[in-house]
Design brief:
The complex is a heterotrimer of chains A (about 250), B (about 290) and C (about 325). Chain A has about 250 residues and is an alpha/beta fold. In chain A, about 35% of the residues lie in helices and about 30% in strands. By secondary structure, chain B is mainly α. Chain B has twelve helices and two strands; from the N terminus they run αααββααααααααα. Chains in contact: A-B, A-C.
């Protein structure tokens, strides 16, 4: 399996200037290196402040990084044009209430990437959106509804549908099921797995929920204050962890 | 969209003040639109000798329901035509200040940095000066007249819209649906107009309603000072000014235009408050 | 028996008519015991807590055949009675510590206020006691912390402060409503271990409410599973986990990823459908639209309460494995 994403010595710092003029540097990511192969799911676990959300933002180019290299499909991440990039990497967001524009209809939300990136007509976009809605388990009759008329789980499905419209190669999921009830979580996780198989996606699955990450990911990395303290095949990592922080996480989980 | 309006109407009905305000405004709009039909006389027709007649006067075959002014013009007709002028004034002010204010607010909120600094400090400057005073200065520069008065009042009203929109943009900018749009390649303008702006409509409507009344009031103030509508345009503020010296002898010349200003401004304020209550918590409860 | 609740129901009067939030709840709690209450959104678990404390909004209609607390009859509609109990005999900690503490008052002020309201202490005595409590819940530099504001503390710290306030008057019952949902997993364990310690020290009973079944089962002696305003199943933790009778309990246990250990990365067992909203409560059994064992009877008749190793509401419960 070839490497789809290669991250080497990635660093990200925030600089804050206080009123007195002194600069304070806050290092969020410290020399992170890891790889994601094609058709592989990488789990990322860590607690608040470990940098996992920042990592997601850097990989999706929503934020710049301070140092290091990121290569995607053999090219430098920054070399992709603004038109090409959305077809490479996409993201599913955490908050089902915030990640959809409350003023847009369901199909409009899903089809918008097509309008922006491929210049499709409204009718074509509508058709493709309906097809995708069915794929993610939503009834096409609900396509004219607004986000507030859907449940949390259904909204996450909309977010997943939107992310897949441009057929990205890598899907980054930032706590995609954390805000959902347990029974709905299972539904969405099943959906993600089946979509991964169908679209041959690679995924980076960020979560604080160890049992979910263990279930869904092939490999996992553990972040602690911006550093990778352990990384390896999920089964191994969760049954015989080598780093004491990983052990502590496992012990704490009920 | 239609359902939104129907629900809005239902909510407004609950607020008696806002509902009353709405009907009053509609009444004045009708008055203004149908002025040529409803008004017994043309607004600038002078009847010789019919000077400062009190309300309910008959004179040489004419009947003046609200009396006449100091030149012999029917007050009722001038008030009716005056509503046309005032409403047009209010609308112009709102359209001008809302559109420019929204544009500035969007830019300041989204782009931040020096764009935000320049725009915000300019708005601060405008707000620091008493509104009528500043309007007077602008009119003094541009020259008196209703059109210039509208421009001046619009400038004075700008910060209301700019700050409102800017605050909304700042709140929405970091939401995940905006990030999602950035991720699939939407540019700044598309995001501003297609994603963020539709979510700013509610406070915009409220502010527009309140801005209407402010616009009418400020133009009336300028008119009163002789800097707004010029004779013989029947504008309520100018009518007030013309009647100043006759406050004791012919109070109806002052009271009636003043009452009109009061009622219209109050109605818009009540409507605006009602809209605010109807629109904002609604949107938050919609989960 | 510390708390006994018989036939509790809560109705909300709304513009669209009366909405039934809770229906005929029966449950009890012994002294020193932890009752775990599991439910997803819309199950009514938070409404139950608020009803017990008398903290529901004005449009709520609370009815119960009987509520007994510490040997006395309790009228859930009597604000007078409840006010005397709130804070002193019944304490509550909420989900989001950041918003549960008053942001414009210092921590110390809030704690002293609570103490002085229920106990005959001077300000100095209350201050000393407050510092002691903060130390007990593991806050370093407690004396200094008394002067802090809520926003200066981390999530875990704020929760500890809230716990300190809740137990300050040594209540007999502590209601913990999703106490660790907003916290990291390592902090979660610390908080729950702390609660268990305090329980033993003060002989306190606890109602641990959460959507996290794993958490509830680890820390509770008995568990109550709520669904759509009713108790679907309740019983001793071991019994409920090993042999659930109600299909919903079974589904919850099976839907967890950890239930698939050792198996291939196959599909998780997922309960189909969604929890009904307050307006869309089904006829008959509340769970039947999502139940894999539903029959015609389930669609029309509300199931009676049956008892075997656990207590449950079901026409066709799961038999012994």
């Amino acid at each position: 399996m070839s490497s789809l994403l290669k991250v080497k010595d990635l660093e990200k710092s925030y600089v804050t200037k206080s009123l007195s003029g002194s600069r304070q540097e806050h290092r969020v990511l410290k020399k992170i290196s890891f790889e994601v192969a094609e058709n592989q799911i990488l789990g990322v676990v860590g607690e608040s402040g470990c940098g996992k959300s920042t990592l997601a933002k850097v990989l999706t180019r929503l934020e710049d990084f301070s140092a290091g290299e990121i290569h995607f499909a053999g090219k430098d991440l920054n070399s992709f044009s603004r038109k090409e990039f959305p077809h490479q990497i996409q993201m599913v967001f955490q908050d089902p209430y915030q990640s959809l524009n409350p003023r847009k209809k369901a199909w409009e939300i899903i089809a918008d990437p097509l309008f922006v990136s491929e210049g499709l007509s409204r009718r074509e976009g509508h058709e493709r959106a309906l097809a995708m809605m069915e794929k993610v388990g939503l009834r096409p009759e609900t396509s004219e509804r607004y986000p507030h008329q859907f449940s949390g789980g259904q909204r996450q499905r909309l977010g997943i549908a939107r992310a897949l419209m441009l057929r990205p190669k890598l899907l980054i999921l930032d706590e995609p099921v954390s805000a959902l009830d347990v029974s709905i979580q299972a539904q969405v996780l099943n959906l993600l797995l089946s979509l991964q198989r169908e679209f041959q996606l690679s995924m980076i699955f960020i979560s604080h929920d160890l049992s979910v990450v263990k279930h869904i990911s092939d490999r996992t990395l553990v972040l602690y204050f911006g550093e990778i303290v352990e990384m390896g095949p999920s089964q191994e990592l969760f049954t015989s962890p080598r780093h004491e922080y990983t052990q502590r996480l496992l012990d704490s989980a009920p | 969209m239609r359902e939104l309006f129907l629900e809005l109407f239902k909510d407004l009905k609950k607020n008696k003040g806002a509902f009353a305000g709405l009907w009053v405004i509609l009444f004045f709009i009708t008055l203004g639109l149908l002025a040529p039909i409803l008004s017994p006389y043309p607004p600038d027709q002078v009847v010789d000798g019919a000077l400062r007649l009190p309300p309910n006067s008959h004179f040489q075959g004419h009947y003046f329901l609200f009396g006449t002014d100091d030149i012999g013009r029917d007050l009722l007709s001038r008030l009716i035509y005056g509503s046309r002028v005032s409403l047009w004034v209010g609308l112009s002010v709102v359209l001008l200040s809302a559109s420019l204010g929204t544009f500035l607010g969007l830019s300041a909120g989204y782009f931040g940095g020096w764009v935000d600094r320049v725009i915000s400090r300019t708005m601060d400057f405008i707000m620091a000066l008493p509104s009528v005073l500043f309007a007077i200065v602008i009119v003094a520069v541009l020259g008196p007249g209703l059109l210039n008065a509208i421009v001046a009042v619009s400038i004075v009203a700008l910060p209301n819209f700019t700050r409102l929109i800017r605050a909304q943009v700042l709140a929405e900018k970091n939401k995940q649906y905006v990030q999602a749009a950035q991720l699939y390649g939407a540019g700044a303008f598309r995001i501003l107009f297609k994603e963020i702006l539709p979510n700013c409509v509610a406070p915009l409507i409220v502010q527009a309603s309140l801005g209407f009344s402010e616009g009418v009031l400020n133009c009336a103030a300028l008119g009163f000072l002789g800097l707004g509508a010029q004779a013989p345009t029947p504008e309520w503020g100018t009518m007030l000014s013309d009647a100043r010296s006759f406050l004791e002898s012919s109070p109806w010349m002052v009271n009636l235009p003043g009452l009109c200003i009061l009622v219209v401004v109050l109605s818009f304020n009540l409507l605006g408050d009602g809209l605010r209550d109807a629109l904002d918590p609604r949107l938050k409860n919609r989960t | 028996m510390l708390l006994e609740v018989k036939n509790l129901s809560v109705l909300f009067r709304t513009e669209v008519g009366p909405l039934e939030a809770l229906r005929s709840l029966d449950f009890a709690l012994e002294e020193g015991e932890t009752l775990g209450i599991v439910g997803e959104s819309g199950s009514g678990k938070s409404v139950t807590n608020l009803a017990l404390m008398g903290l529901l909004p004005a449009n709520a209609l609370v009815k119960a055949d009987q509520v007994r607390f510490a040997g006395q009859n309790l009228d859930l509609n009597s604000q007078e009675q409840l006010r005397k109990l709130r804070g002193s005999q019944i304490g509550m900690i909420f989900q989001d510590p950041m918003t549960a503490l008053n942001p414009s008052l210092r921590i110390g002020y809030q704690m002293i206020e609570t103490l002085q309201r229920h106990l005959p202490l001077t300000k100095a005595e209350a201050h000393k006691k407050a510092v002691g409590l903060l130390e007990r819940v593991g806050i370093p530099e407690a004396e200094k912390r008394m002067k802090s504001y809520a926003f200066e503390l981390s999530g875990g710290m704020s929760q500890r402060v809230m716990i300190a306030m809740a137990i300050s008057c040594k209540p007999k019952l502590l209601i913990a409503d999703e106490p660790t949902t907003a916290l990291d997993v390592t902090i979660q364990k610390q908080i729950l271990d702390l609660l268990v310690e305090l329980q033993k020290e003060n002989k306190m009973s606890m109602m641990l409410v959460s959507h996290d079944l794993a958490l509830v089962k680890k820390y509770s002696q008995r568990v109550q599973v709520m669904y759509a305003g009713e108790i679907a199943e309740s019983g001793e933790t071991q019994n409920l986990i090993q042999h659930p009778h109600h299909p919903y309990t079974f589904g919850l246990l099976k839907a967890r990823p950890s239930a698939h250990e050792g198996m291939a990365k196959g599909d998780l067992y997922a309960i189909p459908g969604v929890v009904p909203s307050l307006r869309e409560r089904p006829q008959g059994c509340q769970f039947h639209p999502r139940c894999f064992r539903a029959t015609e009877l389930c669609k029309t008749q509300a199931p009676p309460v049956k008892t075997s190793s656990t207590r449950f509401r079901c026409h066709r419960p799961l038999e012994a494995p």
